[in-house]
Design brief:
The complex is a heterodimer of chains A (about 110) and B (about 120). Chain A is mainly β and about 110 residues long. Chain A is about 0% helix and about 50% strand. Chain A contains no helices and 11 strands. In chain A, strand 7 and strand 8 form a beta hairpin. Classes of the chains: A mainly beta (about 110), B mainly beta (about 120).
């Protein structure tokens, strides 16, 4: 499968715990994006990498959120001290070049109890 | 601040009918307008996209119409099939050729095609 992959697909955690999600983009894609989608809403932009550089972060990305993309390959999104409001689908997307639409992965559904 | 407004929130269409979804945007810097299709439990999948230098783009049964002066664009699904039942999102981004392709999404339209 040459698409964007995300792991885990589902995560249930208790409030206050830390969670980490992984995204593996399409291999030749140099751009990687994280979005968050709550039920019945469109995805909201969180952050974006070009190669290993994190170029933009949304105001939605509080201090409890951190994303990395070491070596410009896979990316991780960590949420510290999770809150119930963090429950959502976290989507990763990747693209190549400046003018191409991002391709989305299947998402990681986070439930915070 | 919702920069892309999508309507209707849901629609039901008979098999073979036409589904029409409308979007309006506020930011005149937007210059790239894709549509995504999402099935339950899946990530959004790109359907078709348009830039403001054309007023219409067709790919198979899917057509985008774009009205730059009105800051509106719409998706038409011709000959709708039960397999088209999904949630559709319009999106917009700015900076043709600029770094990044950060998308601002509409709220989504849930389409149900009845056999």
């Amino acid at each position: 499968d040459t698409g964007v992959s995300q792991n885990p697909r589902h995560k249930i955690t208790k409030r206050g715990q830390n969670v980490t999600f992984r995204c593996d983009p399409i291999s030749e894609h140099n751009r990687l994006y994280w979005y968050r989608q709550t039920l019945g809403q469109g995805p909201e932009f969180l952050t974006y990498f070009q190669n290993e550089a994190q170029l933009e972060k949304s105001r939605l990305l509080s201090d409890r959120f951190s994303a990395e993309r070491p070596k410009g390959s896979f990316s991780t999104l960590e949420i510290q001290r999770t809150e119930q409001g963090d429950s959502a689908m976290y989507l990763c997307a990747s693209s190549w070049g400046r003018d191409n639409s991002p391709f989305f992965g299947p998402g990681t559904r986070l439930t915070v109890l | 601040q919702q920069q892309v407004k999508q309507s209707p929130q849901s629609l039901i269409v008979q098999k073979g009918g036409i589904s029409i979804i409308n979007c309006a945007y506020e930011n005149t810097a937007f210059d790239y307008f894709p549509w995504y299709q999402q099935f339950p439990g899946k990530g959004p999948a790109l359907l078709i996209a348009i830039r403001p230098d054309v007023s219409e783009k067709k790919e198979g049964r899917f057509t985008i119409s774009f009205n730059k002066s009105a800051k509106q664009f719409s998706l038409h699904i011709m000959d709708s099939q039960p397999g088209d039942s999904a949630t559709y999102f319009c999106a917009a981004s700015k900076g043709y050729g600029a770094a990044g392709n950060k998308l601002t999404f509409g709220g989504g339209t849930r389409v149900l095609v009845k056999p």
